[in-house]
Structures are given as structure tokens and as C-alpha cells.
Design a protein that fits this description.
Blueprint (H helix, E strand, L loop, with lengths): L1 H20 L2 H30 L7 H39 L2 H39 L2 E4 L2 E4 L2
Helix pairs in contact: 1-2, 2-4, 3-4
Length: about 150
Amino acid sequence: MIFLGTWAGLNIISGSAGYFLSEDDTKYFHQMNAGWNLVNLGIAGFALYNISQMDASSLSYSESVIQLQNLDKILLFNAGLDIGYMATGAWMWERGLRKGSERLEGYGKSLLLQGGFLLVFDLVLYLLHSPITNNIITQSDTFQLTATGFRVNF
């Protein structure tokens, strides 16, 4: 989330400056980058706040596994949304070219960039996180609590 927040901050700064220093569709590209990343900054800030308030020791093992699996699902769902953002951006860019709308062109280019970044971000996080989740689940399968005691399977 620190990485996402940094990306957002840099885009807000560069987008704001670029909006005032640019013309044509580039002006709208920067405008959308700044606006889009206000949302990203809010998401990163909200997530970091929630992480700072979380007491991981209060979660049971099964609750922890459920939380890990939920994060994996959220990351994959977000990757699907990211593809939708990119498709919308491509449509806006193309429509802007057809209609002669610099705003649609700039916004479309921005959505392609931001959606592409988020797609890579979400997939990398999933590829890093999912093996951890799977490893914990696999390790838990080696332990069994039976009526006669505790058993470790190798």
C-alpha cells in the first residue's frame, strides 16, 4: 500500500503540474491521472490505517486463513476490474479520435496507463501472496487432531 500511495502521490503532483503546463489531449491525460490517483491515495491510506489498527494476534488460525484467501480473491477480482478500466480507456481514446474530442482522447490514454499499472500491481501482489496462502494451508494439512491425540503427517 505504501507503493500504491507513492504512485498516487507522484501522479497527483505530475498530473496537476501537467494539466496547467500542457495543451490538447495531454492536458486531459494529466487531469485524469491526478483525479484517478486521488482515489488510489484514498484506498492506500484507508488500507494502511486498517492495517495499523489490526491486532493479528486476536485472529484464530482459521480466521487468518480466511483473511488470506479473501485477499487472494480480491486481488484477482481487482485484476478483472483493471482489464475493464483498460478496455474503457481504449474505447474512450478511439471515440475521442472519431469525434475529435481531446478530452476523451486524454482520458482514454490515462485510463489505459492507470488500468495497466493497477493490473500489474494486482497480479504481482497476487503472485507474491497466493503461494504464502497455499503454503499455510498445505502445512496445516500435515497436522491432525484426532480423538486419540495429535498426529503429524509427512
